[in-house]
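Hi R.,

Here's the chain you asked about this morning:
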Amino acid sequence: YSLPLSWGNLIYYYVKLTPHFDYKDATKPWMQIMEADKWRAVQSDEFKQHDALVKGGHEFKQTVKNWNMNEPIVINVAAQFGKYDFKKHVFPFQPIKSTTYFMGLSSTSNRYSNNWVDNVYLPNEIQLFISNPNRVHDIKMSEANAEKLVESRKDNYGNVDRTVYLRMKVKITRRKNRKNTDSDGILEGKIMSAMLYLNQKMDVPVASW
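And the predicted structure, written out as tokens:
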């Protein structure tokens, strides 16, 4: 089992990797984002709001406590492979670099939206960098099979569609700070496995790492 890339999943890795996390101040924005319907129902009544924050704080803590850090995040990427290398017998392919990151945005991250939460206790965006980008590197294939692949992906004008679809399972390993600030939501993860598919439905595999 693995979890899709989303703010709602990444936030629990982020919190669990944050020493001395301030649940007291973070519970309100967490409820505004993750429990929006419950929050709207109590936001005009300070007494119900108070009770909701107490209960929500316990739920937030319990969710983080029970969060399985070994559960990988699934990341899907569309990328293009290069022209066949006849010496190495590979299609050049390196869709992930050390500077590449994948983002989880909260539903309230747009300050021009009615849902925007003015929040300094939880990151409105979480960036996930990959520590081993070279894990996914080149598509090995015989010359005969490579020629068949290229031929099968030509359109009526002879143009080759080189887009393929990558699915990676990434284990979150640590939280990173930028410029020594605690407010930036930056995580680092390690690719545990990756599968490459020829089609967007991801049911025609062509390579794995």
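The CA atoms of residues 12 and 64 lie 6 Å apart.

Let me know if you need anything else.
M.
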